[in-house]
Amino acid sequence: MSSTWILLVDDEEEFLDVLAERLESRGLKVDTAASGESALERAEAKEYDAILLDMAMPGLTGTETLRRLLEINADLQIILLTGQSTLSQAVEAMKQGALDFLEKPADIDTLVDRIETAATKKSSLMDKRIEERLSDIMRKKGW
Q: Would you place residue 86 in the very low, low, confident or very high pLDDT band (cuts 50, 70, 90)?
């Protein structure tokens, strides 16, 4: 898991720093963003294996950030974290494309397990895209 890159998005900077430190101590590579806007900038500049996204943020909400992240890259694996959202908000976010939903404070082992699942899914999607491109090239060349 040492090559797994994740993006943590949360407006509570102390929480963000502590969670990043805990995840890094488990071998993950972590970038952080304190707003939805910052998360969008980072996602446009870099590929992440998973994104942990807080639902309740000022400015760009978690739901809007989720939607816009998936517009940037539909293969993004986004795990929602919240201490305030309702079950209906979680269901709606999952319908929009979130991979998973956890309540704060999430158990660190559960969170790492979900990140591993997300990274595996992202890798499978990337492999599928590469295979599709290779098949297309071979078809066009008549091989």
A: low
